[in-house]
Amino acid sequence: MSIGNIPELKAYFQDMKDDPGRKINNLGKLFLWHISCRISCILAGSMNKNIMRGLFMRLLKLIFLGGALISLAAVADQKDQPGQYHPGKEKAISGVENDITGTYKNWKDRKAIEKSIANGMESQYINYKDVRWLKRDEFNGELLREEARELYARTGKTGKSCASCHGSNGEELRGVAAKYPTFDKEYDRVIPLTTRIRNCSEKYVGAEMPEDSGDNTLMTWYVTDKSDGVPIDIEVDTPGPVQDAFYRGRDLFFKRVGQFNFACASCHTPPTVLKQLRGMRPSTPYGDAVSYPIWEFPAHPERHYLLTMQLQIKACQAAARMKTSHEGSLEYTDMEVFIKSLSNGYEINSLSSYYGETLD
Ligand code: HEC
Ligand code: HEC
Q1: Which of 9, 31, 200, 201 could form a disulfide with 209 if both were Cys (CB 3.0 to 4.6 A apart)?
Q2: Whose CA is closest to atom 12 on ligand 2?
């Protein structure tokens, strides 16, 4: 699949080609990883346990995480040449049952998850559904829901609120989140839910609500929450703009870019995925999107402790020293279409927690 005639994407690929950081080879990556581990060991050695212990541990965790991320991908990428696609692109097709890691059977429904836990299976083989699905029984997000209801019913300059048009409890929005990103006539392109909500807020409520704002994230979660239990259904199987976005998104996911010349796939597909290295255990990307926006406490207080899919993509790009873009961009929307379609057929699970803490 080519990138077609979309100038924004063409420029993006060209930038990647010209990026001098791409010359760093695998030995370089391993060296950088080694240095970051060394630094964290020295810091650990000189640590005074009584002084700012919590903060220090957090910093150490970050350094270790960086080292682990780099080494994970370096190990996976040893044989690849710069500028290529990570192998296996064609095998990444939509539908949760097409999971490339073969773990789907362990987490396909509640019964399977419970059985996997009873068998003492490690979380990465259950796609963290032991945390994300079963823990929700004690993690219901009611406080967050109250906050969201208040914003949903808040009137703006037009004298209207979301509630004026979409039902006092958002009941008319059930099922909507399972279909986004989708094609929008006004924009004449595929847009994510965040852009739909920004547009509605500006046009009909008279309140600014940019994609990367806390208000937008809260409303995006609220609308998604209305689709709890609805299977994801991104329309990638019929030819059209959404399918085109899927292929572009998949290309972006497998293309090796940035200073370390990683692809998203370097870490998120075989042979690296599921491998344990220094405490990092990436799980399959299939079935992840049902949990987003996801509760990640105490990160992102300005976003109500919620992490949207596009903010997660941006965070991974930054960690892997790739060029970042902005939420709502064509590039992130294409990647979201690809990643979300890997959850097609799997039910939205709101509210999920990244690590499994309880809310209240
Ligand atoms: C004055 C009425 C009005 C208000 C107020 C309004 N919307 Fe909308 N909304 C619409 C219309 C009409 C559409 C269909 C798309 C369009 O024409 O822009 C829509 C579409 C949507 C959709 C997509 C539905 C689908 O089936 O694809 C979502 C989600 C949504 N609105 C959320 C919100 C949120 C959240 C707010 C508050 C910030 C809001 N809307 C405020 C009228 C409104
Ligand atoms: C250097 C390794 C690395 C690279 C490159 C990388 N990621 Fe990640 N990513 C991780 C790790 C580690 C996690 C957290 C563990 C997990 O959940 O799999 C993560 C988490 C994620 C998640 C959330 C998964 C979940 O379980 O909720 C998504 C989505 C994601 N990454 C997408 C991407 C995209 C898109 C790219 C490319 C722009 C990318 N990642 C590049 C290592 C990487």
Answers
A1: 201
A2: 282
The ligand placed nearest to the CA atom of residue 152 is 1
- Tens of pLDDT along 180-199? 999 999 999 999 999 999 99
d(CA 149, CA 169): 8
Q: Which amino acid is at 235?
A: E
- Report cis status (omega within 30 of 0) of the bond before 181: yes
Decide if 159 contacts 189 (C-beta within 8 A).
no
Q: Ligand 1: does its nearest atom lie under 6 Å from the Cβ of 205?
A: yes
- Burial class of residue 31, CB neighbours in 10 A (0-12, 13-18, 19+): middle
Residues in Cβ contact with 145 at an 8 Å cutoff, skipping those fewer than 6 apart? 222, 225
Extract the runs of DSSP E, i.e. beta strands, from the chain.
182-184, 189-191, 294-295, 306-307
Whose alpha carbon is nearest atom 25 of ligand 1? 176
* CATH code that applies to domain 1-22+85-360: 1.10.760.10
pLDDT higher than 70, residue 79: no
* 204 pocket-lining for ligand 1 (C-beta < 6 Å): yes
pLDDT for res 281: 74
pLDDT tens, residue by residue, 25-59: 444 554 565 455 455 445 544 544 444 566 566 66
Distance from the CA of 162 to the center of ligand 1, in angstroms? 7
Tokens 């979301």, residue located = 162
State pTM to two decimals: 0.83
How would you write 95-106 as a 3-class SS string?
CHHHCCCCCHHH
